[in-house]
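Course assignment 3, question 2. Fill in each field.
Student: A.L.
Task: Predict the tertiary structure for the chain below.
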Amino acid sequence: MAECPKCQTPCEPDDRFCSQCGEHLAAPEFSEKEGRTQKALSLSDVHYNLGMVYFKKGEYHKALEYWEKGMRQDPGNEFLQRCIADLKEKMKSG
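Answer field:
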């Protein structure tokens, strides 16, 4: 597992920013010959990712705020709907 170069927090290989300090992490290399390219992000993807940063930091109200913004951009996004429902349940019970 990789670590943030600034604060040494463990990071997932696909993370672009550190969940602890927000440091920009080096992006994985993409190779055309291997058939991999970087996916274009929609605005709802960006809101989901920002929500995940806040979720990982335990700032659930901010995570909910960004996920709801994502839903306004993509109202049919079932994944975001599940994330919001699960988070609301977590916030009620804990």
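Instructor remarks: Residues 78-93 form the longest helix (16 residues). Strands lie at 2-3, 10-11.
Grade: pending
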